[in-house]
Design a protein that fits this description.
Elements: E1 2-9, E2 14-22, H1 26-56, E3 64-68, E4 72-79, H2 91-115, H3 117-140, E5 143-149, H4 159-178
Antiparallel strand pairs: 1-2, 3-4, 4-5
Helix pairs in contact: 1-3, 2-3, 3-4
Length: 179
């Protein structure tokens, strides 16, 4: 179904349409809904991550907000580096690397979304984590971490890191399943 608003020029006997609406049907609607779903996951994931970090930033760095023995504690840590505080002494390099990952994340999401809906969902989860940490890096100069698993004591991390790991794990798993 198409709606057009047209004007007829009687002197030149021609019609020009200046408003044209085409109803989305079938495949167009499915594609549109798919991208809305991906974008919603990215925005909702980043929003949840930022809400938790907002609460954590209300207390001084190093202060414990809660302990849930024997599993984990919530502690405010600012990470100026990347994973495991690597490159902490090179903030400009980290900013440039972070800036270059934005188009890569969305290219990955577009590529995976075209491949299959499930791959797009996995890419959206990964992108949600990436966006959450990128927001921290550009707004605060560091990433706020707060989850410290007591049995393992590897590193303190955050919800965005969880999204990145889960998204990457599911993507790798799906690629390995196809082989």
């Amino acid at each position: 179904m198409t709606l057009r608003i047209c004007c007829k020029n009687h002197e030149q006997e021609e019609t020009s349409c200046f408003f044209h609406i085409t109803r989305w049907t079938g495949e167009k609607m499915k594609k549109s809904a798919k991208w809305v779903c991906y974008l919603s996951i990215v925005l909702l994931g980043a929003f949840c991550d930022q809400c938790i970090k907002y609460r954590v930033r209300m207390v001084p760095v190093g202060q414990v907000l809660g302990v849930f023995p024997p599993l984990f504690r919530i502690i405010h840590v600012e990470n100026t580096g990347v994973s495991f505080s690597l490159l902490a002494d090179h903030p400009f390099l980290i900013q440039m690397i972070s800036l270059s990952t934005i188009p890569l994340l969305f290219f990955l999401l577009i590529y995976l979304g075209r491949y299959s809906f499930r791959m797009g969902l996995r890419g959206a989860v990964l992108a949600a984590g990436g966006v959450g940490n990128l927001l921290d890096r550009f707004c605060y100069g560091s990433v706020t971490d707060y989850l410290d698993f007591l049995p393992f004591r590897l590193a303190v991390f955050n919800l965005a890191d969880v999204f990145v790991v889960i998204g990457a794990f599911l993507l790798i798993l799906s690629v390995l399943k196809k082989r």
